[in-house]
From TrEMBL:
Sequence intervals crossing the membrane: 49-72, 93-125, 137-158, 165-187, 217-238
Source species: Catellatospora bangladeshensis
PANTHER family given in the database record: INTEGRAL MEMBRANE PROTEIN-RELATED (PTHR37305), MEMBRANE PROTEIN (PTHR37305:SF1)
Entry keywords, A to Z: Membrane, Transmembrane, Transmembrane helix
Protein name as it appears in the record: ABC transporter permease
């Protein structure tokens, strides 16, 4: 198993896709943090927390990373060689899941570090202090990293189930950015807070989710459940379906 994880790490660090996604994420986090820092009172801890909360929103990047880890191999026809090298396909998917989840957490941790740094520099330059002692600040930063990790794992499951890279990415983003909103208008917040993106907002402590969302620990457990569900389905279908 460790060898398979090592193979996945080699693929990840020798392709440009991961670096490109990381750069996009950090740019988005920096730009996103500038919003509340530009428009909200700098003497309030909520401003710094709102800036750091943008780490969670870039979990869509981690989701794409997870999808590409599997569906990308189908697109480039390298999945056949992968399975020939390790005929036990379930172990291959498990290795991809493990490595990509760690990579997703790494993306989130890097994003949290950048958002904290940007916020610190901004507040210091304006003559204000960073609320380092505020527990909510650290809950938000940690929650954003966990959200990224969970969506990376879910992405692996989606990529293994759908296989078509374009369809998997487009469908996932449409669900998270559009469908959940429509469902919310139809059935209300009491139902939608249990859906993946809404649960993610509670894990990442987005301001809009704090009032009526799930508690952070409950949302994290729910996201973990989604990741396990997608992973189990992916392993089952991968071992039963032809590669082509």
């Amino acid at each position: 198993m460790l060898k398979l994880i090592g193979n996945e790490w080699l693929k990840l660090r020798t392709t440009r896709g991961f670096v490109i996604l990381l750069v996009i994420q950090l740019v988005l986090i920096t730009a996103g943090a500038a919003g509340p820092l530009s428009n909200m009172p700098l003497d309030q801890a909520a401003t710094a927390i709102g800036a750091v909360a943008h780490v969670g929103l870039t979990s869509l990047i981690a989701l794409v990373l997870g999808i590409v880890a599997v569906a990308g191999e189908y697109r480039h026809k390298t999945i056949t060689d992968t399975y020939l090298g390790s005929p036990r396909r379930g172990r291959v998917v498990a290795a991809k899941l493990t490595l990509t989840t760690l990579a997703g957490f790494g993306l989130g941790a890097a994003g949290a570090a950048v958002s904290l740094a940007v916020t610190y520099v901004w507040l210091t330059a304006a003559g204000h202090s960073m609320p380092w002692s505020d527990a909510e600040l650290w809950r938000t930063a940690a929650g954003g990293a966990v959200w990224n990790a969970a969506f990376a794992a879910i992405g692996v499951g989606i990529g293994a189930l759908v296989r078509n890279l374009a369809v998997a990415v487009a469908g996932s983003l449409a669900w998270l950015t559009l469908v959940e909103g429509v469902v919310g208008q139809l059935v209300g917040r009491d139902v939608t807070r249990y859906l993946p993106f809404s649960a993610g907002t509670a894990v990442g402590r987005l301001p809009a989710s704090i009032a009526d969302g799930l508690p952070q620990w409950g949302a994290a457990a729910l996201l973990a459940g989604y990741a396990v569900l997608f992973a189990a389905a992916a392993i089952r279908f991968t071992t039963r379906r032809d590669v082509a």
